[in-house]
Amino acid sequence: MKYISIGGLCFVIDAGLLWFCTGVLGWDVWLGATIGYWTGVLVNFTLNRTVMAREGGNLLRQTTRYGILLGFNYLVTLAFLHLTAMLGMPVVAGKTVIVAASTCWNYLLYRFWIFV
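Predicted structure:
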């Protein structure tokens, strides 16, 4: 439940900034996605490290592994949002789909690779 709650909060931050930057400010999708993504990431890492890390864990190892996962997730997110925007899908709908998919693999990687 903690993982889902943290993820939900981070999704609201990420998607909210994406919507605000693209829908209200009129910025390009890549810029709104970048601002939302990295803001959500900062909140997500801090909260998940507190909840999922066993006795604190090795911060350098955790941040290195987390950074690798973030790079992958960021590139997948940008590619997917670009594709869905070309197909006429609203950006927040595309963001919702990619977050649902990445939530599955992220949970496993957080639990068994990053925060160990």
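Summary: DSSP finds four helices and no strands in the chain.
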